[in-house]
Amino acid sequence: MINKNSLFNKNVFFSAMISGMLLFYIFQIYLDYKNLLFHLKNVSLFLLVLSDLPYFIQTSLYAYRLQIGFRASGHSLSYGKAFWSHLFGMLCSNFGLGKLGYYAACYPLHEKINYSFSMGVITSIQSLDMIVKAIGALIGGIFFINYLTTFQLRLITFSLSIGFIVAGGVLLVLMWSNDDI
């Protein structure tokens, strides 16, 4: 019988190795190291830390949100575990399509919480995010709708915003229903 964890670890290892080799090859061909080192030496450390502060606050709040999501679903999760799991998911999300890489946040939690359960909690959080972003887009669309010149563009903007809100709501209702789909 094949162990799923060892198979997953091998896939992750080979994917990381191939990605690393491709990046190394691309950097060797296209990167001017002297120019890069010159610019890295001239970066203001104060401004670098200051620019990362909002990102750190956002990451801290998202990790807290992840912890609350798991707590609400009956699993206690330390803030540290939620924080590092969230960072792992965000790192993988940089390379995945859309927000799919964020599902990698399930991996650091797999010893305590199975993947299906973790993916359900993360999908719920992602659905709520989608609804909030769609509402923000709707508000922004209403604000900018005065600048659009044709009725068709106004209708498209409004319809897309409503569509995303409905899609997020339907996804949440389907996940929260007790019936299997």
Describe this structure in words.
The chain has 181 residues and is mainly α. The chain contains 6 helices and no strands. Helix 3 crosses helix 4 (79-93) and helix 5 (115-144) packs antiparallel against helix 6. The longest helix is centred in the C-terminal third of the chain and has 30 residues, at 115-144. It starts with a helix and ends in a 5-residue tail after the last helix. The model has no long low-confidence stretch (mean pLDDT 79).
Biggest β-sheet strands, sense, barrel: none
Structural class: mainly alpha
- Can you tell me the overall shape? globular
Enumerate how many helices there are, as a single number: 6
Kindly state the number of beta strands. 0
Average pLDDT, rounded to a whole number, is 79
Content of β-strand: under 5%
What is the gyration radius calculated from CA atoms?
A: 21 Å
Low-confidence segments, ≥5 residues, pLDDT <50? Answer: none
Percent of residues in helices? over 70%
Order of helices and strands: HHHHHH
**Amino-to-carboxy terminus distance:** 29 Å
Task: Describe, in short, the structure shown.
This protein has 181 residues and is mainly alpha-helical.
Write the layout of secondary structure elements.
Layout: H1 4-30, H2 33-41, H3 45-72, H4 79-93, H5 115-144, H6 151-176
Helix pairs in contact: 3-4, 3-5, 5-6
